[in-house]
Every structure is written in C-alpha cells, then in structure tokens.
Design a protein that fits this description.
The chain is of the alpha+beta class. The protein has 3 helices and 4 strands, in the order αβββααβ. A 4-stranded antiparallel β-sheet has the order 1-4-3-2. It comes from Mariprofundus micogutta.
Length: about 110
C-alpha cells in the first residue's frame, strides 16, 4: 500500500516550463513543489528524451522554504522564487502555512 495520497496530476506535467526543463537538464533543478501529488518515489519521467527518477516525495510548509530550497527549484534565491510564483499565479497569496508536495528528482544516468 502506498503511504501517499492519490495523484492529482500526471507525472508528465511535473516540470513543464522550458527554463525549468533546461535547469533540470543542467542539474541545477532537482526539486519541484506542487500543491498536489504528481509522482511517487522511484517513478521515472523524461525531459527532452533524458530520463529522470523521482527520489523522494515529502510535505513542506511553503513558509519553511530556504534559499537552498529555492536553488533546488532552479532559482537563485527564495525572494526570486516567491516573486516569480506570485507572478505566474495571479491572485495567489503567499501563505507560510500552505502545504506543498516536494518532488525530489535526479537524472537517471
């Protein structure tokens, strides 16, 4: 039995933005935060034909993010991550206690 809830979206939608795909391919992006579950540990996906594997799935309060977490998301700082997320999701408020799912992954070379 899986200890995680049912998926809310397909794994192929985990990393979609071209800049984030490029950051993943370059090894600069190793995490993706989502409000739902897109993949389980040990699941595989491809970005531009390159295989990746999900290494971990965990819950986190968005307010607990650090600069290191933002860098794992492919952004230089938490402030830049927060700014871009709020621009991408019009009307969204940054609520420190909002929980997200952290999908950790790596290239499967």
């Amino acid at each position: 039995m899986n200890k995680f809830p049912e998926k809310t979206c397909d794994i192929d939608r985990l990393v979609r933005h071209p800049k984030l795909v490029a950051a993943s391919l370059a090894g600069k992006k190793t995490e993706q935060r989502r409000d739902g579950v897109y993949a389980y540990p040990n699941e595989e996906f491809e970005l531009d034909g390159v295989p990746f594997i999900v290494t971990d799935l965990k819950r986190q309060n968005i307010g607990d993010m650090t600069d290191a977490d933002a860098q794992a998301e492919g952004y230089p700082s938490l402030e830049m991550y927060k700014s871009l997320i709020l621009k991408m999701h019009k009307g969204m408020e940054w609520k420190d206690d909002a929980q997200v799912w952290v999908h950790c992954f790596k290239r499967k070379d």
